[in-house]
Amino acid sequence: MDPADKIRDHYRPRIQPGRPHHDILDWAAAETQETRFNVLTRCVDLQDKSLLDVGCGLGDLCTFLLRRLIHVDYCGVDLVEEMLTKAASHHPSRQFACTDVFSNSAASTLAALDRPAPFDVVFCSGTLNLNLGNNMEFLPRSLRAMYDLAGDMLVVNFLSNRGYTVDPTYFNYSTHVVTKLVSNLFPAAKVDLRDNYLANDFTLAIRKG
To answer: Looking at 5-9, 12-16, 160-164, 195-199, which range is the least confident one?
Structure first.
């Protein structure tokens, strides 16, 4: 099955009236979701930057940034149209689009979003954590696609294989393997590893050289 179809099939049944956002998005708690958002804001100064939120879900990052009074030119993309409808209802003045950034070229994605240039920052939180059956094959393609959409920095978080309970629904990554992969893919980039905020999670902030 195509990775995009697997992602849609996982999340669509979770979209139910009255269900908390973090539960729809399959986070353990709202606090852990926001912990990842906090890591993003510690990695990069977002004030007055353009930001692409890959796998934006219900637009919770946008809500978080507004609450923190961090002004960004925000755009959220996702594969699940039902998620985007809800996100747009919460933030009608923001841009949300249903597009597969992993399958399209950066030029095609930017044209579809009516963006003349790459985003200052691209952020991807949780989108790569489902077990797709071929995560380590899919990972280089997805990282390259997002990197090409970033003018300055790509920030991505992953589930870690350090201290976790096995669940076949998800894929847990090796910090060492992913960091080495990123360094090989983008040798001119500066890679900042953050792995001290949750026991089973790590974030890579990849600044373009």
So the answer is: 160-164
Number of alpha carbons in the 13 Å side-chain half-sphere of residue 186? 25
Residue 32's identity, in one-letter code, is T
Say if residues 9 and 131 touch (Cβ distance below 8 Å): no
Please tell me what DSSP assigns to residue 170: B
- Can you spell out the DSSP letters for 1-39? --HHHHHHHHHGGG--TT--HHHHTT-S-HHHHHHHHHH
What does DSSP assign to residue 202? E
* DSSP-derived secondary structure letter, 190: E
Helices (H) and strands (E) in the chain, counts: 8, 7
Portion of the chain with pLDDT greater than 70, in percent: 98
Q: How many residues does the chain have?
A: 209
- Rounded to whole angstroms, how far apart are CA atoms 160 and 168? 14
Q: What distance in Å separates the CA atoms of residue 27 and residue 14, rounded to the nearest whole number?
A: 12
CA–CA dist 83, 97 (Å, integer):
10
One-letter amino acid identity for 61? L
Residue 134 carries which DSSP code? Answer: -
CA dihedral 204, 206, 207, 208 (to 10 degrees): 180
CA atoms of 176 and 180, how far apart (whole Å): 6
Count of Cβ atoms closer than 10 Å to residue 153 Cβ: 23
98 φ/ψ sector (left φ>0, alpha ψ -120 to 50, else beta): beta
Q: What pLDDT score was predicted for residue 163? A: 66
